[in-house]
Amino acid sequence: MNNIMKNQKTLAYHDQCIIPTEQENKELAALSNSKMSHLLKSCALKKNEISLENLHEHLRVAMTLELSTIPPYLCALYSIEVGDSTKADYQKSYGDNAEVATLIRSVMMEEMLHFTLVGNILNAVQGEIKINHKDFVPEYPTVLPDSAGQFVVHLSKFDQSSIKTFLQIEQPTPAGTEPKLDEYETIGQFYHAIQDLMQALEEEARDKGETIFKGAKTHQIDAKFYYGGGGEIIAVNNLKNAKAAIKIILEQGEGSEHSIYDTDKKDFKQINEISHYFKFNEIYEQQRYASCQIGPKVPPQGTRMDIKHDKVYNMGINPKTENFVSADLKNLSHQFNQLYRELLDGLQKAFTGHKDEFLSSVCQMYQLRYKAVELMRNPILGTRVNAGPTFEFLSDQEIKDME
Amino acid sequence: MKDSTEFDVVIVGAGITGAIIAKELGAKCKDLNILMLEAGTGSGSDFKDYQKFNDQYYNAWAKTPNSPFTNSRFAPSPSVLSPHNIKQNGPLTDGYFVQEGPFPFLSNYNRNVGGTTLHWLGTTLRMCPNDFQLKTRYGHGVDWPLTYEDLQPYYRRAEFEIGVAAEVDEQNYLGIKFKKGYVFPMHKIPQSYLEQQMAEGLKGLMFEDEGEKYPVEVISTPQGRNGMPNVAYVHEESGKLGFTPVGAVGNSNLGQRCEGNANCVPICPVQAKYNALKTLHDALKNPKLTLLNQSPVSIIEIDSDTGQVDCVHYKTYQTDDNGQRANIQSHSVKGKIVILAANAIENAKILLASDACTKSGQVGKNLMDHLVMITWGFFPKGQDIGAYRGPGSTSGMPLMRDGEFRKNRSAFRVEIGNWGWNWPANTPESTIVDAVDKENMFGQELIDFIKEQTSRQFRIGWEMEQLPSEKNYISIDNKYKDDLGNYRPIIHYRLNNYEKEGALVASKLSEAVFDKLNIESHTCYKDKDAGYFEYKYKDCEQWKVFKSTFNGAGHVVGCHRMGSNEKNSVVDSNQRAHDHDNLFVAGCGSFPTLATSNPTLTMAALAYKTADEIVKQFNSKCDE
Predict the structure, then answer these.
(1) Are B316 and B328 in contact (CB under 8 A)?
(2) Using a CB-CB distance cutoff of 8 angstroms, which residues of chain A are in contact with residue B58?
(3) Do residues A383 and A250 share a domain?
(4) Taking burial as the number of CB atoms within 10 A of a residue's CB, which of A383, B75, B170, B210 is the most buried?
């Protein structure tokens, strides 16, 4: 977007991570035909079409957007070795790696919450859920919109560049972001467009004494079924709580432009928590913010963080099963993708009235983790990198062929 | 800190009782300066601490209840590996306890921040109404100075704090009543596949005892374990609808649901099971609460004029990395109110060492524990019961918890175990070792064998209520001290025929259950077992001998019983010491009788009652 600023160092500190480098712009251009670009573009084209079908499509794409962030977080998380804290050389060998893993995990859980919230909205307006559908399963590398434009997201082990990606994902959405006419460049614009669509459709319906929020209450995922943290789930049945859900998605975990601290934790008794974006920045800079720091426009100035990049499984970037050379590794990768497909199938069922499916999803997620780590431990013959989870979508036919 | 600093409140022990009281006082009397002294290690708010416990557990060769937790020679915890069969009179002195016998005390506890809730199973049964009136109803033990009705509101608060998962319509048996419209914070933890099969298989079974017939039913057990929140739950004080499960301390996104790691004891790897660190974490948000670890209390000093506790003496220890050299210092602090909130045995030890609460002569007396008899066997070939999955126990059979039979023998709770023969035979590890070592198995044959064996392994626990007795008591002696110069508890302990008779009936019920389910018994008691006992009884005019083994339940109860006056008891129904009006002695030690429920929930309820009493006392100075 901003081709004049070629040297990142000339940028203000807080923009350095956000404004893409020349290299990144090239990658972006190369991905202009990616699945996510298409989805976003086709949505943008129909932006002014006020129809329920269009809202449904927007929400399905939003689910894909949220889902897209999870595999990259998983890859980074599972690649980090946390070590055995009872060993005498633990601190020396593993440093603060466990802290990094904990952070990535908690941010990832927020993305899962966002995914569920969008699913609830889609169900509330009687849209068709398409989670285990080839068109809506992310492919990597992909692009994602953020507040400054689009950026590229890879499946990658934990390293400086993956943290930079996470900074982009978690980057605050400036207040008053307006939807653009031709294209959605930012995630804020995208969700604001959804909000406008909902509003217009609901007003239209109300004029006829109707509502668009007619979805089955039984399909809503509430606190009983939503597993784990990331914040509070909202069951959606009207415009007001649909907007509240979007507000959570847009604001959660992000710092403001004025403070490095989490703004949504207002309880005065609570110790101020640094928001995710700035925690990632601590990891990126390998230095913590000092307790006296508040403003986001200077680098962290507190104690050094000790991150051991050598204690990370050396997973290659954007792995593909077909490149795994040995039959054993390919087989392992197929097993992983089969589990991934089963998980997507389970989620599809859970969002279409069979909430009990969430229970077995827990086991599947553990199995995914074991397989992912197994892949990451194994080097690919003839290369300098290890395998990793590919998150490739297996069609029904491909699964049949494997059996 | 300067010595003899004065605090408003000094709490001794950072377990569940201390944590609840500290949290309540912080919330309701904001200006109080509170000091908490903990003998062991830990911080109460650091996720790294807990991860270290996990790693210590993974590394431990014997996975005992205390194996994940740091043990210091300056504040040692008892170990379940220490007790042996006491053949001759003469104390067992290895380990932390000094066991005078004649029967060994088989339970332990944990001395670290978080206390024994770090390794509890999480069972949160309420007591039955009749449990509070054992003397009046059945002529044994004593009555409590309060009733079930009195304790009900405190039970509800405890169930919120711990986060209890259960269904009211399954728990309202044997006179246990709930407030109209009450629901537990979370829905029940799903019962294991085994328990579902048992419930099905036992349908129609009646057990006859003393001419009465009892239906044998499998009922889910309330647990302090994160499950699905009940959206209809209403918070007692705020009126807020719904419940948010509390995750791991310092990493709240972890452990918001039980994941079925099947490792609740000794350590839930994700903290889906409640532990007192969670309450403490909240309590510590109060900047006026100071928690000092590695600070075991030696004595409390009583002012002979006022009869009040004047100050608390404690020692601190800081060790170097290998634990060899230590910097030990003595300190004392004053407290307007002092609360002993350590384990029952530790509370009694401090009182004895301080010559406090002497009027009733009851300090240290009436030590109790549930005496657990285990029976085990194989389900029929081909019937996979899914052993080793899920929490340690999710159901029980409450039929023998209360009834007229308590006039003649002990009541007991029946706990269905989900982890095969892990408790009695250290399976599945031993299954593998035996197969490889004795049967020379390997490869696919070994895998098939392990699958076939472990999937059918079943055990069930029969937990006898022990009566309070003056013969079961704690004493101290200058001969036995720990490395800090604090007393080690000397335990005098024996069994009554009341409990042995209970075990005999339990063994008959066990036979009936095994028969009905076609379980092939592998139960085997050896006279070298630490808790082995024999019981002579008359059956049809014939003398017979019943042989069995008891295990400890980890339910250390009694030693400073509550009661109506200073002559019959150490504390009143608010756990305030009769003899010293600024001293509270709180915890399971206050229970006058044991009942059949696991004691933690009742202990937590009592902690709320105590907290209310202290809030009331400070009321004039508090900003409400």
Answers:
(1) yes
(2) 84
(3) no
(4) B75
| Distance of alpha carbon B124 from the chain centroid | 10
A65 lies in the same domain as A126: yes
Whether B528 and B594 share a structural domain: no
Nearest-neighbour CA in chain A from B160: distance (Å): 16
pLDDT score for B388 = 92
Q: Give which of A164, A128, A140 is closest to A70, Cα–Cα.
A: A140
What is the pLDDT at residue B315? 96
pLDDT in tens, A191-210: 888 999 999 999 999 999 99
- Give the domain CATH number at A302: 1.20.1260.10
Q: Are residues A232 and A182 in the same domain?
A: yes
CB contacts of B228 in chain A (<8 Å) are: 224-225
The 10s digit of each residue's pLDDT in B292-339 is 999 999 999 999 999 999 999 999 999 877 767 789 999 999 999 999
* Cα of B349 to nearest chain A Cα, Å: 32
pLDDT in tens, B546-594: 999 999 999 999 999 999 999 999 999 999 999 999 999 999 999 999 9
Query: Is the CB of A98 inside 8 Å of chain B's CB atoms?
Result: yes
Low-confidence ranges of chain A (pLDDT < 50): 1-6, 179-181, 265-271
Task: Pick the last residue of a domain from A312, A336, A362.
Answer: A312
- Measured between beta carbons, which residues in chain B are less than 8 angstroms from residue A86? 52, 55-56, 59
CA distance B398 to B214: 10
Q: B542, exposed or middle or buried, with CB in 10 Å at 0-12, 13-18, 19+?
A: exposed
Partners of B47 on chain A (C-beta within 8 Å) are 102
How far is A108 from B254, CA to CA, in rounded Å? 12
B256 vs A270: CB contact, 8 Å cut-off? no
Determine the 3-state secondary structure of B153 from DSSP: helix
The answer to whether A228 contacts chain B (CB < 8 Å) is yes
Chain A CA closest to residue B246: A229
**Predicted interface score ipTM higher than 0.90:** no
